[in-house]
Amino acid sequence: MNAILVSLLVLATLVTLCNTQCFIIPNQNSGSNECKDLDGITHPLDSQWKTENCEECSCSQNGINCCSLIAVPVDYDTEKCKKVFNKETCSYKVVERDNPENPCAVSQWVL
């Protein structure tokens, strides 16, 4: 019984910390074997891809589902440090404002 309660507490904590940013583009042609994204590019049914905006997308009968791949630092010393985004790796690093060569500690990241 205690193991179940502990498992539920851990699950509730993980769900609370997870704030994934996702969106859906409904499929315009319900019988189609492809999806059209916002740029007008068509993708085969059941395909997956990554966008230049750091999103992972997939095509299904319902449409396109995309979720951000970017983990954003939210708990760090904002006066001493700043976040720097690298579009190539779709990631942030947190560094000292006065000496960007020195990384800063981050206690929490949010998707």
TrEMBL record:
UniProt xrefs under InterPro entries: PSP94 (IPR008735)
Record carries keyword Secreted: yes
Source domain of life: Eukaryota
Transmembrane segments: none
Localization terms from the record: Secreted
Pfam families in alphabetical order: PSP94
Keywords: Disulfide bond, Secreted, Signal
Signal peptide: 1-20
GO cellular component: extracellular region
Family indicated by similarity: Belongs to the beta-microseminoprotein family.
PANTHER family tied to this protein: BETA-MICROSEMINOPROTEIN
Protein name: Beta-microseminoprotein
Organism listed in the record: Camelus ferus (Wild bactrian camel)
Gene: MSMB
